[in-house]
């Protein structure tokens, strides 16, 4: 079955950086676009970034554009989210997802202190 395991979250000061990783299994990873979502307490889950199956096109939410970079390594079945210039409002649980499937991982917590 589809499994997604996120890692790399943590506590960082505003202006700092983190790199999130998502290890995928149970499907042909290289054939599927991938997304990163986040959900802050009391808020709905929102799409942060998306990448095509080949990694040749990316899309970002306006709130993270220019600060976050999504990438993938199809040989490793992994997708990444490089987060720079972090702000307190980036604090959330972050999840990766393959749109074709309904599966979600456990997420990784990102906390940005001011």
Helices and strands, in order, run as EEEEEEEEEE
Sheet with the most strands, sense and barrel status: 6 strands, mixed
How far apart lie the N and C ends? 40 Å
Number of strands: 10
Oligomer: single chain
Number of helices: 0
Radius of gyration: 13 Å
Q: What structural class do helix, strand and pairing data support?
A: mainly beta
Strand content: over 45%
Task: Put the structure in a nutshell.
With 114 residues, the chain is an all-beta fold. The chain has strands at residues 3-7, 10-13, 18-25, 34-39, 46-51, 58-60, 68-73, 78-83, 92-97, 108-113.
Give an account of the 3D structure:
- The protein has 114 residues and is mostly beta strands.
- The protein is 0% helix and 49% strand.
- It contains no helices and ten strands.
- The protein has strands at 3-7, 10-13, 18-25, 34-39, 46-51, 58-60, 68-73, 78-83, 92-97, 108-113.
- The strands form two sheets. Strands 2-10-9-4-5-6 form a six-stranded mixed sheet, with no helix packed on it. A four-stranded antiparallel sheet has the order 1-3-8-7, with no helix packed on it.
- It is globular and about 40 Å long.
- The termini are far apart.
